[in-house]
Known about the structure:
The complex is a heterodimer of chains A (205) and B (233).
Chain A (H helix, E strand, L loop, with lengths): L6 H9 L3 H22 L3 H17 L10 H15 L4 H4 L4 H10 L3 H9 L2 H18 L3 H11 L5 H8 L3 H19 L9 H7 L1
Chain B lengths: L3 H13 L7 H4 L3 H23 L4 H39 L3 H18 L4 H23 L39 H8 L3 H8 L31
Helix pairs in contact in B: 1-3, 5-6
Amino acid sequence: MIVSESDSDLVRRAQAEDIDAFCLLAERYARRIHLLASHYCRNSQDAEDLSQEVWLKAYQALGSFRFDASFYTWLRRITINSFLNHRRSSFFRRRGETTAVQLVQIDSETPESFLESHSSSPENIYNKLLFENVVSALSELTPSQRLSFLLRHYEGMSYEEIANAMSCSTGTAKKGVWRAIGKLRARLSPDSEEPESLTSLANEY
Amino acid sequence: MHNCKEAKEQLTELLLDGMDGRSEAVLDQCAECCAEFEALAATLRMTTRLRETVTPTEQYWTGYHAQLRQKLVHARDGFHAKAQRLNHAKEQREELKPGLGFFFASLRQPLRLCVKTSLLPVPLGLVLMVMASVVALFAIRAARQPVAPPPVVVHVPVEVPVIQEKTVTQVVYRDRRSVSKTPKRVVAGLTTDNTLARSQKLQPEDGPLTLSGFKPTDEVKLTVIKGGSPNEK
């Protein structure tokens, strides 16, 4: 029977310069960090770079971890700081180039593989449209508002925790979350001006 | 009394906390709030669904972790090199300059001794300590001052511009009437004491000069006039 090591044990080993232990920690939490990064950045490459930057910073600062809180809480604080310091991706500056980027990705694949992976399933098309709309709506927010929403909705943090982590007031954190939800609702609701209603599609699946 | 704005805020919080069920107490049978609740719930359902679908495949994670491991190894090597450089620089600093911390630490022990043993009165001890510290500070400062290297004499040729003497040219006019009507060539010939001049004296003025009758002399008489040349020393 294999007993997995606790986070604290892995952190102690990692503090003694055991890279394998740190990689085990990364395997445990990389998906959560990557999920936040993929919603924070539009580009998947940017999200990958940003999430790996978080792990590198965590490795550099591991000596300062004092076991006062859980490892993930400490890691999330580093994630938030990295996100806020990260420069905005080119999409957020020039949104008009989204379609061109997408066409290059499609052209780089063979027609067979593209049909198998993308267009064969309506669900994939729906997910793609949904992702485009959600992230596009999030991109209209400021980085701090966007991050507040992600932390509240995906991480389940309270407004006090968000305010403490982002060094802002509770009211600012709450306002950011509500504004994000309002944008998403306006973009995804049935009465929005989008060419195709995503809500009706959502009901089908 | 039902307030739609407050109800909307409460509904949003309920939905974010995962309570997707309809709360009759909050909605209070308000049609507008019910519609708002449905729209918000649908929106958050979609984002939750998106969260599940955008997760990359296992193949992606294999490459992701391999790349991350490479970066970590590279970063660790960088840390070690940087730490070694910092330690080396610190050791060098400590060798060259004894810090103030070292100075005060050396004073601590005698001060304790004075206080504990009470060999000296406290004011006198303090005065002595201040004097000792001043002397020590001067000694450290003198030790820190770098020894000046012996002066090196370097010979460098330097061109110094010399102011040239000013040459003044003065034109002197003389009266034409005072000029002698004697031909210049004949006058000059009279002043010279040679055979050619004597032979020329015998020639008519308008005739051509010839060497007929020229007889070279056995002696050459030269007259040196001192002070005639500006370069003469």
